Structures are given as C-alpha cells and as structure tokens.
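## retry 2 of 3
previous attempt timed out at serialization; input unchanged, resubmitting
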Amino acid sequence: MKKKTLIKLSITFIILLGLGFWINSRWSAWFHNEEEAPYSPLNQPGRVLLTFGDNNELSRNISWQYDSIVVPSHVDLVDTLCKDTIRIPAQGEIFRSRSGQAAYYVARLRSLQPDHYYTYRVCNEDNVSPWYHFRTYNSSTRNDYSFLYVGDVQDSINGKANTFFKEAFQQHSDTEFLVFGGDLTERPTEQRWEETYRGLDSIGQCYPVLTVTGNHDYLKYVIRKLERRFSLVFSYFLDSMIGENQVYTLKYNDMQLFCLDSNREFLYLWTQKQWLEKELKKSTARWKIVILHHPLYSIKGEMNNLSQRLMFNSLVEQYGVDLVLQGHEHAYARMTNHADNGDATPPVYTVSHCSPKNYYIQFDKRFDKFGTGSRYYQQIRIHGDTLTMNAYDAIDNSLYDSVDIIKSDKGNIKLNNRGQNIPEKLIFQSNGSKKEEAFRMRIEEYKHRKGIE
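## retry succeeded, writing output
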C-alpha cells in the first residue's frame, strides 16, 4: 500500500472515529425521550384552560379533560349583567399517549360581548367543574391595555411557577391575558403536564392563555413529533394550524400577535414563512408583535438558529414588526435595531425565561442588555402612541429593563431606552469546571467592556 494512500485512510479513520464519538455524545440530546409513567384519566372534569379562539379578539375557547371515553358535554356560560345562562356544546376527542389515554374537550365561545363579565363551568353529563370567571376587556375605543409575556417555564415537579405568576398578576392587576414563548411544559408526559396545570392554577381559568411551541413540547425523532394533546389543550391551534405547523395570529384592539412554530424542520419553516408574509402583508394593526421560541439572533452562539433567522427575519424587518418575543436560551437579553444614522429603531428583540434552569450565554455586542442567573417576565403595554416593554425580575418583581416605542400620527418612530440606567445583574457562581470557568471569564470580560462594577 502506498504511503499516500495509507495517510488518507488514516485521516479518514480519525475523522470517522471523531464523528462517531461526537454523535454518541449528542445521541441522547437528539433522540432520548423522557419515559412517561402509566396514568389514569381524571374522574371529575378538570384541567380547565381558557384561551383565545380563532374567530376574532372576542372569541374564546375552553378546554378540559375528563375520563377516557367521550360523553355528552357542554359549558354553562352566564353573562353576569343580564344573568342569562347559555349552554355551549363541546367536542370531545380521545387522545392516547405512550402510557395511557384520556378524553379532551373543547368548547368554542363565539357570541361574547366587549367589556363584559362572565362566569362558566364545564359539564360532562352530571359531572361539573367549579365555577370560574373571566372578563372580555376589548373595545375598539380602548387605547391602554397590556398583557404579560413569559419565556420558557419548564418547571420542576412541585416548582415555583404558580407563585411567580400570581405575584406578577398581583403587581399588574390590569393584565388582560398571558402569553408564553414555548417550553411551558418540561417534557410531553402526563406527569409534566400535571405540573403545568398546577403552575396555571387560578390563572389559566380566568385569563386567556396563548403559547407557541418549543423544543421541549416535541417528542424527539428524526422528524420531530408534536403530540395531538398539545393542540387539544391549546385548542386555538385546532382551527389555525397550517398543515402540521402550529401557527396562530390574534388581532387585539390595534395590536396583532403572530405566533410561529420555530422548532420545525426547514421545509416546515418555509411553509410558515409564506403564512407569516401573507398575514403581515394584510395586517392593518398599528402594533405588530412576533412570538417564537428560538431567538432569531442567538445568545448561545452566532451559528445557532440560522434557519429561523433566514426564514423570518427579513419579513420582520420588511413589514414593520415592532417587537419580537423569544425564549429557549434561558437568560434575559434585549437587542435593538439601528438605522443607517445609528438611531435605535424597531424591531426590538428580547430573549427571556422563567425556568429554574439557567444557560451559559455569549455576550454578543449587538445586544443592549443581558441578565443571567434569575427568572424574568415582561409586561407589554399599549398606551396611546406608545408600546412599552417592561421586563421584571420574577424573584422580587423589580423592574429590570424598559423600552418605549413611540409612533407619531405623522409616521415618525422613536425609541426610548429607559432600561439603560437600570443595573445589569449577571449572577453566576462557578464550581470550578472548565465550562463554568469559561463562562465566568466571559462575564468578567463583558463587565469590563461595559464598565460594570
């Protein structure tokens, strides 16, 4: 055998060996799915969740679970002003997961009035839930309204999410609905779903909940799989999905939300791109907000999420999106676009999470602000000619970041960075491992660059 041939074979062997070790190290992350323990369905109607519907800003859906077979079911809805009780039929569907089955129900409320108070209960034959209540705030004349946004939750069993949510709603009593940036549930198992509902207890029954899909919502296969259970719970997707893409848009007063399914493969993302362009092009909303799980500009590495950026970012910039709300990377970060003259301009991109897990990030110079080692949520408020994004530390509800996007009647847009005077918190304690020490050094370099004490 010639020497050159031997060298080529040796190099090929080394490359294949290294590739094998790398694939072996990543195999679990790519393809391991958490086991689901056997379970029994609820013997009383429960896991009630209020969401928006697919019709308009006044439409609502109510989803719940009961037993393992479909029985005649409905919602009793009471308008508290006129005291009329309406019976709204529900559709049931049996879902079988890897370790059990249960019946899920959806009732669609399509005749609600603006600024009304309602009470309701879900009914399966003679079995009924407690009474819950909600309010329809929307009115075409209102120009001051707000919602809360929460990135990844992924709470541990018996975690603290419910406490954080309740405290956030107490601090922001004018909140009208709640939006999640994916990975609300740690993994698609019955036990993890139970924890998600515990986290939403007393909130998800009274305030409409929206979420986009995250990678933890999917089962890991060569082609990722989202269980039907996800759409039965967040039932607006049953009517809004395009093919297998969980996409949804909501026009709410003079604001419109565009929800994307960013965990999909390239061809699915291409379909979503076409959907997003169509929806943005026909939108008449003054304020446009895109919500997706994977940040278009990653804080984990410049090469991350390139497919998502390639598909969606040009549309975000072309069609005047004001704010991009994202999750996935378990830290806080805010990035603001700048015009050719250096002035700050929309879109504003934020990354946020409210999970017990924190990630090691990169301190990209394109970003204006970071936060590590804590949990966060954001209040998005529309008031007059201004959209305000306030970010809060969920641990103590202190204001952590704030940006105003101001639009004049003449079409001029101005950004007011009120968060630049709020100190950045970069909390991290190293145990001495190489990865932790490398992150500690990145934090020190960033502090030196920004002049942070």
